Amino acid sequence: MKIRRRNFKRDHETPNFWPSFTDVMSTIALVLFFLMLLAYIQNMVTGNKLLHNIAKLEEKELELKNVEYELAIQKAELEKVRTEAERIGNDLAISQKEIDKQREIIANSNRELSELRTKLEAIAVLRLDVLEKVKHSIESELGSTTARGEELVTIGDNANIIINESLVFETNSYEIKPAGKELLGQFAIAFEKILDDKNTRNYIDSINIEGHTDDVGTSSYNRELSAKRSAEVVNYLMSSNPQLEKKYAGFFATVGFSKFRPIALGFSEAARQKNRRIEIKIAIKDSSIQDIIEDYLDETNEKLNLIHGDLYEE
Question: Is the pTM of this model over 0.90?
Answer without folding.
Answer: no
